[in-house]
Amino acid sequence: MAQSSFVMHEEEFGEITVIIERLLREANAKCVYLVDKDGQLISSSGETAEIDVTSLASLTAGNIAATGGMAKLIGEKEFSVLFHEGERDNLHISLVAQRVILVVIFDKRSSIGLVRLRVKKASDELGRTIQKLVDKMEEVTDKVTLLEEITDDDIEKLFS
Questions:
Q1: Is it the case that residue 54 has pLDDT exceeding 80?
Q2: What residues make up the domain containing 119?
Q3: CATH of the domain at 91
Q4: What's the structural domain count of the chain?
Q5: Taking 60 as the threshold, does the pLDDT of residue 94 lie above it?
Q6: Is residue 4 domain-resident?
Q7: Does residue 129 belong to any structural domain of this protein?
């Protein structure tokens, strides 16, 4: 199936929220974001009030796309994990299930080792939830395709 925007269902959104809130606590991070590859925010948790989330989501998606281009130049498929170290804050960016981007912002209260460990566990859980969403989207697509195959003559025969 081609990459497409997600149709978020309440059940999966709840699962995603629980996972990123747990990641926030267990990694001792400042904030956690889940973004789609188009740069749209899916969910967030933590100290998010002072961050321009729209810009962060767009720039993160662009960062993943740009590093994907660099990976191809050197013969790699992609770089699934990126790390940016700042004076006060650090960003850990990872690709989850080749479909969404997990962004963890943390400071000196945590460490890159702890964040990487907790992100690995959260990524596995998020991957399963994202796959459930994809499966639901494919199921709906199959039903729509089936409906598109019904002709006007079929409908006339049905109601005659």
A1: yes
A2: 10-159
A3: 3.30.450.30
A4: 1
A5: yes
A6: no
A7: yes
User: 68-84: buried (b, 16+ CB within 10 Å) or exposed (e) per residue?
Assistant: beeeeeeeeeeebebee
* CA dist., res. 56 & res. 35, Å (int): 9
At 35, is the secondary structure helix, strand, or coil? Answer: strand
d(CA 106, CA 87): 11
For the entire predicted model, the pTM comes to: 0.81
pLDDT band for position 2 (50/70/90)? very low
Q: Does residue 144 carry a pLDDT above 60? A: no
- Checking if the pLDDT of 105 tops 60, the result is yes
Tell me how many degrees the CA angle 80-83-86 measures, rounded to the nearest 5: 165
Query: Where do the DSSP E strands lie in the chain?
Result: 31-36, 41-46, 81-85, 90-96, 100-106
- CA pair distance 47, 91, nearest whole angstrom: 14
Segment among 106-120, 122-136, 141-155 with least mean pLDDT: 141-155
Average pLDDT over the chain, rounded to an integer: 88
Task: Tell me, yes or no, whether 140 lies in a domain.
Answer: yes
CA separation for the pair 76, 65 (Å, rounded): 13
Q: Which of 87, 52, 114 is nearest to 104 (CA)?
A: 114
